[in-house]
Write a structure and sequence with these properties.
Order of helices and strands of chain A: HHEEEHEHEHEEEHEHEHEEHHHHH
Shape of chain B: globular
Helix content of chain A: 25-40%
Strand order of the largest sheet of chain B: 1-2-3-8
Number of helices of chain A: 13
CATH class of one domain in chain A: Alpha Beta
CATH topology of one domain in chain A: D-Maltodextrin-Binding Protein, domain 2
CATH topology of the largest domain in chain B: MetI-like fold
Oligomer: heterodimer
Structural class of chain B: alpha+beta
Distance between the termini of chain B: 32 Å
CATH architecture of the largest domain in chain B: Orthogonal Bundle
Strand content of chain A: 15-25%
CATH superfamily of the largest domain in chain B: MetI-like
Number of strands of chain B: 8
Radius of gyration of chain B: 27 Å
Number of helices of chain B: 11
Number of strands of chain A: 12
Largest sheet of chain A: 10 strands, mixed
């Protein structure tokens, strides 16, 4: 009688609930990923050049290529080893902290607060950027200093909001900020004239300009008002996984330095250059030291190419974005992309 | 105590203890996981500098204020749109509900079409429609539509002339409040004395006299510390005056029209619940239709209307959180949106936001229940 009563059922439910709350044992991300069979990657909700689904639903972009590089390092070449999750600016860190994604490649600015207070680690910079402003050409504005009293459209909860506030206050300019949660909504509002200017990272300005009704009617102002080093993010406390993500990016930079491309990587296995041999895994145990196969870097290059290739393919001169290498060139060409040697 | 009573009490004590255990286990689990992952905890972030701007603030706010002030700004914006939404939704809802029962075929059909459309389209789509579909077509500030000399309609908002309050202006607010309260008090006293003695009291004339006296007193002691704040186009936008931003207008419109459709049906149900004999008796006494509705039917219908009406008010308050979709700076947008992303402490912030909505809802239902108690028949269900 008691076993059938509703009182017992509620007690039983409560007990099961309490037991189910026991924290799971922390397992390394690499073993979780290997067991699962794919890397869960957090990307943006659609930023051309960085992470954007094309008309067949396939994701492309610099950040997407970084995720595919990490997956290739762990599993080998193949598109099925990554699953992408579109995240807004608000939910990106909670998704990473909770384990919903293993890697956040979402054009996220590396800042001290994010690095220290959120329980996440930045593993490098795959795109050096800065914040800029886009306005209509017919306003006749040549500089951000002329934007006193303007309305600005921006994305909610990003460093953009803070930087714009700081810049305008420092220069004693008034402004009205209209902050949307989704970048598409912000661009749509700017498009209809709700705001005078749209502000975000300069690379995103070029990307979002493509989505406006008449891209030629808008210009990106020359001033860069902040440093925005964009890079991948992982959870704190898992150094092995952090190393894998860090060195996946650095392998791509080293490959560009050494002239290894997706076309010649197979031939490079027979190279006499010791640096190339270490990169493609013929010499040394660098892959095993991270828990990966020896051909980890060769797989990366096969899958996405070196850093220069992915840059040109996604945001380079022959793409609609048409961004020059600039500060993202290799260190020996005057840029900031510099990787420690694989040795 | 009998055996059965003792067993009941024991079972309830055990259940309560298990529930408490589960809750403390949950909280402890969250705390230890946050610590293990080096995510900062605690409410200390509320005293940190916010550093971002908000485009509609009912209280003074600038970028140097704390996140706690941001919370207050968001809360005031939520309260503003919820209160006005409740008022408009009730007015529109009652009118449409009564119109639905009209004997005029066209009027009742129009009301039915209104209810069916606005009830069945999701609220988020309605908000998007008003914001992106309708208000976007307003002209830019340089080509603003001017009504008179100082009222401008643009896609940045409706700009109205406002006033600037100088020193001592705050006295006017309680003075006006006192006047309004006095008016209601006097009206009740006048009604009671009329029922007892049959002699009417000229309430409006007395109130006019008192108002003049009050204004004279205020002028003598405080002066008139108000100056006009006229809007003027300077560069990109209008400076000065009161700006009603399009985000606020779109949200208010959508919330009011959506909730009014539900309220209309509730009002219709309430009116239909009143015995037909009441209407017939009233018309037999010679009361015209409008009077019958106001004095006989609606007071009785209110007993049926008020409980579901409370739910609709709570729904409206909670639905106002959709403001984040169109960049209206309510509490979800500035606190559980911007602040959450800047600070990163999702658990604490979402908890605070939930508590605030819970408090708002509890206060609303408490007030409505008090009103319900007053209109209920003595002895019937309260």
């Amino acid at each position: 009688m008691f076993l059938k009563s509703s009182r017992f059922l509620s007690l039983f439910a409560l007990f099961t609930f309490a037991v189910g709350l026991m924290p799971a044992q922390a397992a390394g991300t690499l073993s979780v990923v290997k067991k699962r069979g794919y890397v869960a990657c957090g990307v943006s909700q659609g930023l051309p050049g960085f992470s954007n689904p094309d008309d067949t639903g396939r994701w492309t972009g610099i950040d997407v290529d970084l995720c595919r590089a990490v997956a290739a390092a762990v599993f080998g070449p193949g598109r099925k080893y990554v699953k992408f999750t579109a995240l807004s600016a608000k939910e990106r860190f909670t998704a990473l902290q909770s384990g919903e994604v293993d890697l956040l490649a979402r054009n996220t600015t590396w800042s001290m607060h994010r690095d220290t207070a959120l329980g996440v680690d930045f593993t490098g910079v795959n795109y050096y950027d800065g914040q800029g402003f886009m306005v209509r050409k017919d306003l006749g504005i040549k500089s951000v200093r002329e934007l006193d009293g303007a309305s600005l459209c921006t994305n909610l909860g990003t460093t953009t909001e803070l930087n714009a506030a700081d810049y305008f206050r420092t220069n004693n300019m008034q402004y009205e900020i209209v902050a949307f949660e989704k970048a598409d909504e912000a661009v749509a509002a700017y498009n209809t004239g709700r705001c005078d200017a749209y502000t975000t990272d300069q690379s995103a300005l070029y990307a979002q300009r493509l989505k406006l009704t008449r891209p030629k009617d808008h210009i990106v102002l020359p001033e860069i008002i902040s440093k925005e080093p964009l890079g991948p993010v992982v959870r704190q406390g898992d150094d092995q996984w952090g190393d894998i993500v860090r060195w996946s990016h650095w392998a791509m930079i080293n490959a560009e330095e050494l002239g290894v491309t997706s076309r010649n990587v197979k031939a490079m296995a027979k190279s006499k250059n010791p640096a190339v041999r270490r990169l493609v895994g013929v010499d040394g145990t660098f892959g095993e030291n991270m828990g990966l196969k020896a051909k980890w870097a060769a797989n990366i290059i096969t899958e996405v190419g070196n850093y220069g290739e992915t840059f040109e393919r996604n945001v380079g001169r022959n793409t609609p974005l048409g961004i020059a290498r600039g500060v993202n060139a290799l260190w020996r060409d005057g840029g900031l992309q510099y990787a420690p040697p694989i040795r | 105590m009998s055996y059965f009573k003792r067993r009941d009490v024991l079972a309830q004590l055990v259940t309560a203890a298990l529930a408490l255990l589960a809750v403390s286990w949950l909280v402890g689990n969250v705390m230890s996981n946050l610590e293990r992952q080096n995510i900062s905890t605690g409410f200390g972030f509320l005293s940190e500098r916010a550093g971002f701007g908000i485009n509609q603030t009912l209280i003074n706010y600038n970028e140097d204020d704390t996140y706690f002030r941001v919370l207050l700004v968001g809360l005031s914006n939520t309260l503003l749109v919820s209160t006005l939404g409740v008022i408009f939704a009730s007015l529109i809802g009652f009118s449409v509900g009564v119109a639905r029962l009209s004997s005029n075929w066209l009027v009742s059909r129009i009301a039915m079409v209104y209810v069916e459309i606005f009830r069945n389209v999701p609220l988020l789509l309605q908000i998007m429609f008003w914001y992106f579909g309708v208000l976007r077509n307003l002209p830019s500030p340089r080509r603003a539509t001017a009504i008179g000399d100082s009222i401008f309609l643009t896609n940045r908002g409706l700009i109205l002339p406002w006033f600037e309050a100088g020193a001592g202006a705050w006295v006017y607010l309680p003075a006006i409040g006192l006047l309004i309260a006095g008016f209601f008090f006097m009206r009740r006293r006048a009604l009671r004395s009329r029922l007892l003695t049959g002699a009417p009291t000229p309430v409006w004339r007395i109130m006019a006299g008192l108002a003049l006296l009050l204004v004279a007193l205020l002028y003598v002691f405080v002066g008139f510390p108000f100056s006009a704040d006229m809007p003027a186009l300077k560069g990109f936008n209008f400076r000065g005056g009161l700006v009603v931003i399009p985000e606020f207008a779109a949200l208010l419109l959508a919330l009011s029209l959506y909730t009014a459709a539900f309220i209309a049906e509730i009002v219709r149900a309430g009116i239909m619940s009143v015995n037909k004999g009441q209407t017939e008796a009233a018309s037999a006494l010679g009361l015209p239709e409008a009077r019958t509705l106001n004095l006989v039917v609606l007071p009785q219908a209110l007993r049926v209307i008020i409980p579901p009406l409370t739910s609709q008010y709570l729904n409206l308050t909670k639905n106002s959180s959709l403001a984040v979709a169109i960049a209206y700076p309510d509490i979800v947008s500035v606190f559980a949106g911007t602040t959450l992303t800047q600070v990163g402490q999702a658990v604490e912030i979402i908890f605070i936001t939930m508590m605030i909505y819970l408090t708002l809802s509890l206060l609303t239902s408490f007030a409505m229940n008090q009103y319900n108690r007053r209109v209920a028949l003595v002895g019937q269900n309260t």
